[in-house]
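Subject line: Sequence and fold of a protein, written as structure tokens
Body of memo: The sequence and its backbone structure tokens, given next.
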Amino acid sequence: MNAILISRDLLFITKIKETAMTSGARLTVVKSAEALGEALTANPSGGVVMIDLEKCPMPLETIRGALPLGGDSQWRICSFFSHVHLETAESARQLALGDVMPRSRFVSILPNLLSSLG
């Protein structure tokens, strides 16, 4: 299975790449709606899409429009945010951008999340 990360935070991207490598998951980092669409199409078996709400390189509405949401989707969506930006989290929840959680919680579940894909 595959993991897609939507972020422009180079340090955090590196951390997630290292975790993906040790877990055996294949990670694709995207920074545009076009790249997101290509990554989703290239991986029809699904996986996880991880959205960095703080360092997102595109509007959340654009991401929402590109995501395969619905009952038959094979993609799990995880959005994460800084605990001090609750309005960002609320926006993500209103757009139904999957499991919305503080960055600290995301970091704690990341190894298990990616291991389940490997």
Notes: The longest strand covers residues 75-81. The chain has five helices and five strands. Strands lie at 2-6, 26-30, 47-52, 75-81, 99-102.
